[in-house]
């Protein structure tokens, strides 16, 4: 990174944070602090919802997923538009009608205090743990490739987000989200354009897509019924529906984005904006990864993209041999691809099939050498990090983009990290204040200024907790999956609570409370004893909570039912 | 100090005020149709390039 990159990076990231803090420095109203400006329109709400979901991991890991496994991950988002329709039609009108600050207040109104605390507690547990991951994930990658101290990146990111989120609360979050999304869009567009321009002459987008497809990277949909397959249409539609319904309908970091605003219409249109754009957006990011795979078939690249880790362990001659073998395999693969492209243009189907088989075999050989490199790393040090897909896109950024654009793309990562982190902190602070602090200090509810002060303190405390957690914890290698798995374990039961609340009017508080506790225990036991796609736990947790609620309501003694 | 419910808002009757749509049901159907179209296009994309 040179001076231009630093100027772009600091100008955008610090500039947006400073702007957010300055514009919202006079926020004194609890309503504005917790729900944002009352005149917010659907565009801001839509961008804010999108920015909350799009963490830095989205832009680091997902192109890596496309590079490594192809674009099938897009199916993960198939349930999202359907879930958003349900949220618009059922959840959002109820939240606005009751005029709540948090989704869990609704549980208190519908059931009782203990169920509200359980819902809020599940959220704080899940989101609190993830808070450390979302700050650590981009920091580890950015610090590794740029050679910056990891702790410094974590503390810088953490302090920046704490300052403007604590200052302006939800209003600052929504305001900065708009500009952060502008930076993200401009950066990703730049990266795509540069990638397409850097493809070999004559290949173009169509040629690259044909190569990626022939090498198995462009299977966007898979109708397989095998439950052990991680990403299929069915896991996406059903598992993804439950995951998205839980996330958008019951996770305070999202609920807080759309319950404010000028009217119900603005919230609904903001959510529909996401329902329409989310799958195409994820598709483009994954496609970028698949095209990176093609690009690196023609460009020199390391056998292992996490070069810092590689250099740390790859000391002896065995590693040099692997590097040489990989360079030879890449050259062979490149020749095989060119031969296939020529055969494809010749209309000779037999020749094309033969060339395709040779190209696939050459690609498999390259993949086998990469696997061999990872095995060699583990042999050298069992604690070595062997996942390098998160480093593919950032390597491309640093080695292929012109100066200025490098700073912009690094700013994309920071903007995404800050946007999701800010929404998380605001939600954690709000839930702790409204659902816990006020629960134990009911008389303090009338003092608006004190409520705002307490909300600020809790938001800051969660920020400090997230930074500390990120500084001292070590996380799973594939970070986006780690967060999704964590979410899937808790979200299903949380959603079950809300489904019972909305649709099973006869079920009372005690039944649903004990049902949720039992369902959560069941999901945790299943997670540690079964090997099924993790998205299914959303469905299992939700279904178990509903079924147990109905069963318990039927067998509870009449007094307990009446109390419920 | 949770604000009182907003009884005056007529949620279900509120029109979407989006050109071409008179009801929210129409908006939801459009979004659902868009989703189906996107899945079909992705399936076609898979078929063309795989």
What report would you give on this structure?
The complex is a heterodimer of chains A (564) and B (50). Chain A has one domain: Sodium/glucose cotransporter (Up-down Bundle). Helix content of chain A is 79%, strand content 0%. Chain A has helices spanning 3-23, 30-35, 42-53, 56-69, 79-98, 103-110, 113-146, 150-198, 204-214, 233-250, 252-258, 264-298, 307-313, 317-345, 349-380, 392-400, 405-440, 448-472, 479-503, 509-529, 536-555, 558-563. Chain A starts with a helix and ends with a helix. The mean pLDDT of chain A is 89. Chain B has one helix and no strands. Chain B has one helix at 24-49. In chain B, 18% of the residues are buried. The radius of gyration of chain B is 19 Å and the shape is rod-shaped. Chain B is mainly alpha-helical and 50 residues long. Chain A binds chain B through residues 30-31, 74, 78, 81-82, 84-85, 88-89, 93, 96-101, 105, 209-210, 212-214, 216, 218-221, 233, 263-265, 268-269, 272, 275-276, 279-280, 283, 434, 445-448, 451, and chain B through 1-6, 9, 11-12, 14, 16-18, 24, 27-28, 31-32, 34-35, 38-39, 42-43, 45-46, 48-50.
């Amino acid at each position: 990174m040179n001076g231009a990159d630093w100027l772009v990076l600091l100008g955008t990231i610090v500039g947006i944070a400073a702007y957010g803090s300055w514009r919202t420095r006079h926020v004194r109203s609890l309503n504005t602090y917790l729900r944002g400006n009352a005149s917010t329109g659907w565009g801001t709400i839509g961008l804010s919802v999108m920015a909350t979901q799009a963490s830095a991991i989205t832009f680091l890991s997902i192109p890596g997923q496309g590079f490594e496994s192809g674009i099938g991950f897009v199916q993960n988002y198939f349930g999202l538009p359907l879930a958003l329709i349900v949220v618009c039609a059922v959840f959002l009108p109820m939240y606005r009608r009751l005029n709540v600050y948090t989704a869990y207040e609704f549980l208190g109104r519908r059931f009782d205090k203990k169920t509200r605390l359980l819902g809020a507690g599940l959220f704080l547990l899940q989101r609190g743990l993830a808070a450390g991951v979302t700050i650590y994930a981009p920091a580890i990658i950015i610090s590794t490739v740029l050679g910056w101290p990891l702790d410094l990146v974590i503390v810088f990111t953490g302090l920046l987000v704490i300052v403007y989120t604590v200052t302006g609360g939800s209003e600052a979050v929504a305001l900065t989200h708009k500009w952060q999304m502008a930076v993200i869009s401009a950066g990703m567009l730049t990266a795509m354009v540069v990638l397409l321009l850097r493809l070999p002459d004559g290949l173009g987008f169509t040629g690259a897509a044909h190569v990626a497809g022939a090498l198995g990277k462009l299977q966007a949909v898979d109708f397989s019924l095998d439950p052990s397959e991680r990403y299929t249409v069915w896991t996406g539609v059903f598992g993804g529906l439950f995951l998205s319904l839980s996330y958008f309908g019951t996770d305070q970091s999202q609920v807080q984005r759309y319950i404010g605003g000028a009217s119900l219409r603005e919230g609904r249109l903001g959510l529909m904006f996401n329902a329409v754009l989310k799958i195409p957006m994820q598709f483009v990011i994954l496609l970028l990864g698949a095209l990176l795979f093609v690009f690196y078939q023609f460009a020199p690249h390391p056998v292992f993209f996490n070069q810092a880790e590689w250099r740390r362990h790859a000391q002896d001659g065995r590693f040099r041999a692997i590097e040489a073998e990989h360079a030879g395999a890449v050259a062979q693969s490149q020749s095989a691809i060119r031969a296939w492209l020529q055969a494809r243009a010749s209309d000779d189907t037999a020749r094309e099939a033969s060339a395709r088989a040779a190209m696939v075999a050459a690609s498999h050989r390259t993949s086998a050498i990469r696997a061999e490199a990872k095995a060699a790393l583990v042999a050298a040090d069992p604690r070595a990090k062997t996942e390098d897909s998160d480093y593919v896109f950032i390597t491309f950024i640093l080695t292929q983009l012109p100066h200025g654009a490098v700073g912009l793309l690094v700013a994309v990562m920071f903007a995404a990290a800050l946007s999701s982190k800010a929404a998380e902190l605001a939600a954690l602070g709000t839930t702790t204040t409204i659902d816990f602090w006020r629960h134990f200090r009911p008389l303090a509810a009338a003092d608006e200024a004190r409520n705002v002060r307490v909300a600020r303190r809790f938001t800051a405390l969660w920020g400090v907790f997230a930074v500390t957690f990120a500084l001292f914890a070590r996380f799973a290698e594939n970070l986006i999956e780690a967060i999704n798995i964590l979410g899937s374990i808790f979200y299903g039961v949380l959603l079950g609570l809300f489904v019972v609340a909305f649709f099973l009017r006869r079920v009372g508080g005690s039944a649903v409370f004990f049902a949720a506790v039992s369902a959560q225990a069941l999901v945790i036991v299943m997670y540690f004893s079964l090997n099924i796609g993790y998205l299914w736990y959303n469905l299992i947790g939700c279904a178990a909570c509903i079924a147990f609620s109905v069963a318990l309501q039927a067998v509870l003694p009449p007094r307990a039912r009446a109390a419920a | 100090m949770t604000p009182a419910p907003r009884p005056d808002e007529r949620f279900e009757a509120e029109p979407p005020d989006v050109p071409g749509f008179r009801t929210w049901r129409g908006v939801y159907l459009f979004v659902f149709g868009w989703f189906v179209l996107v899945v079909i296009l992705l399936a076609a994309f898979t078929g063309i390039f795989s």
